[in-house]
Design brief:
The protein is mostly helical and 183 residues long. It has helices spanning 2-33, 36-79, 92-107, 116-145, 150-177.
Length: 183
């Protein structure tokens, strides 16, 4: 019986050795037929796909924001005066309202799935717009109570515009770094 156990053990060991040898030989032969370029190509495609999905999401956000901006501009043109209107004009409140509507619409655009650095730049841009909207609302409230210096208003308006442009350029630059097609 002991002899039978030894034979069974030898068969089991021989089976394992044969399996390992066959597996090793198949891996070696398969590597001859599978080029390393194929692996890198697939890896590159995955990275490109991921990058393209991010780029598309950022491009979509910017397109939605631009549509909101066009809606604001149309509201302003519908008012029918040049900007800025006289600060004591009743129409000034309509300018403030158009800007506030833009800020609300663009703030509602989802950014959760976008890269964090883009999200931060976008929040900063919307903060610049929110600050501008608050400025316009305050100016409209003041204009109904007393005359405001047009020169001071134009200077403050210009500073808000510069901050909006700076933060927008920053957000677009980060968007471009992810491959987004933005202007």
């Amino acid at each position: 019986m002991s002899h039978n156990k030894t034979i069974m053990r030898s068969k089991n060991i021989l089976s394992i050795v044969a399996f390992v040898a066959a597996f090793g030989l198949s891996v070696a032969l398969a590597s001859l037929f599978i080029s390393k370029d194929t692996y890198n190509y697939n890896s590159t495609n995955y990275c490109k796909f991921k990058r393209n999905a991010t780029a598309a999401a950022i491009s979509t956000l910017i397109a939605e924001d631009n549509a909101n901006g066009r809606a604001r501009t149309e509201k302003i043109y519908d008012i029918g005066e040049n900007f800025p209107p006289d600060v004591d004009s009743v129409i000034f409140a309509d300018y403030a309202e158009a800007t506030e509507s833009y800020v609300e619409a663009s703030s509602s655009i989802a950014t959760n799935d976008l890269p964090r650095d883009f999200q931060a730049a976008w929040r900063e841009h919307l903060k610049a717009w929110r600050d501008y909207s608050n400025f316009l609302n305050q100016s409209a409230a003041i204009s109904n109570q007393s005359a405001c210096s047009v020169r001071r208003f134009v200077e403050a308006d210009s500073l808000h515009g510069q901050e909006i442009n700076r933060t927008y350029s920053e957000a677009l630059q980060i968007g471009r770094s992810y491959g987004a097609n933005v202007r």
